[in-house]
Amino acid sequence: MNSDSVTKMVVPQAMLDMNSFVCKHDPDKRSCFSIAMLAAFLQLLRGKARAASQGPAGALLLAAVLIFTIVADVLGNVLVILAVLRNKKLRNAGNIFVVSLSVADLVVAVYPYPLILSAIFHNGWTMGNIHCQISGFLMGLSVIGSIFNITAIAINRYCYICHSLRYDRLFNLKNTCCYLCLTWMLTVVAIVPNFFVGSLRYDPRIYSCTFAQTVSTSYTISVVVVHFIVPLSVVTFCYLRIWILVIQVKQRVRPDCKQKLRAGDMRNFLTMFVVFVLFAVCWGPLNFIGLAVSINPSKVAPQIPEWLFVLSYFMAYFNSCLNAMIYGLLNQNFRKEYKRILLTLWTPRLFFVDLSKVGTEGMKSKPSPAATNNNRAEMHL
């Protein structure tokens, strides 16, 4: 089986299989549509990555993809942050991590991605080693921050649905802020060793200053395990436990349990589940390529087609603009707030008046997470 057929199986088919699974639990099929559209886009991006290894025209195609990613990243994640700030229903403990995830996605759009565009147009890195190191550091900060925030969101959802009686105590404002600080502290600690190992280097194949997978076998394996496999294992455990509870509630497996899940609970869970799956799909190929290369660099590296290597990176880059789209497609409160923000932008005075109310409303009332968009499971035992 050649690498072309492997890519077809790994990316689109996996997403389509997940699509059919999610559709069964999604009444209005919004998540089905979003996943199918992304699978089609990844097929298109695969063709662009193949072309990128064949000349300047391909590089321009990658530049077009990156420009779209930057614009969608900035606009989408700014909308997410403003939506949470403006909408009282969205200001809760769970969405603190959603805002944090948006900040992590914004980091790459405002500095590393523009430098990659510059390298594409100049056919090489012209910004000097300092900018290269800063760009690589921020790229790592963004991706590790994203996966750690996705892990925090999964733990939050797990506690919210599976341990709802203790949720208010576990995720009060003080504790949530501590968890958030811990998330970013771990992110910084995880990325700092790159400077000592010397693994941040410019790669002309992807026009990026990024983590060099061939620097150290043991270090690369550690990075993939600690930064990708372990967090995804934690997230998988949390979501599996939630799925098991959902199935038990629907089928009434436990006759002594009268637990009910509101439609909003399932909607919010599906939204974050799709965010997690898309992150795994977009970043999985790059991590598995890195793992394979690090185990046997001299044998494996030459066998990986350049277009596949380029595709894995630009799939990962593209992920930074997806989350805001998913919230808008699958979450009614986010979708309504997006519309309000876009409409009020046409009348700036109204926009700033609405924004000024955020502080006063927050001081008047501090809504419990149980009364917000993250609709809580009702427990009747």
Automatic annotation (TrEMBL):
Keywords: Cell membrane, Disulfide bond, G-protein coupled receptor, Membrane, Receptor, Transducer, Transmembrane, Transmembrane helix. The gene is GPR50. One of its GO terms (molecular function) is melatonin receptor activity. It comes from Alligator sinensis (Chinese alligator). Its main location: membrane. The chain crosses the membrane at residues 61-85, 97-122, 134-155, 176-197, 217-247, 268-295, 307-330. Pfam families: 7tm_1. Residues 370-381 have a biased composition (Polar residues). It is a multi-pass membrane protein. It comes from the Eukaryota. InterPro entries: GPCR_Rhodpsn, GPCR_Rhodpsn_7TM, Mel_rcpt_1C, Melatonin_rcpt. This is Melatonin-related receptor. Residues 362-381 are annotated as: Disordered. It is found in: Cell membrane. Residues 76-327 form the G-protein coupled receptors family 1 profile domain. GO terms for biological process: negative regulation of D-glucose import; negative regulation of glycolytic process. One of its GO terms (cellular component) is plasma membrane. Belongs to the G-protein coupled receptor 1 family. High affinity receptor for melatonin. The activity of this receptor is mediated by pertussis toxin sensitive G proteins that inhibits adenylate cyclase activity.
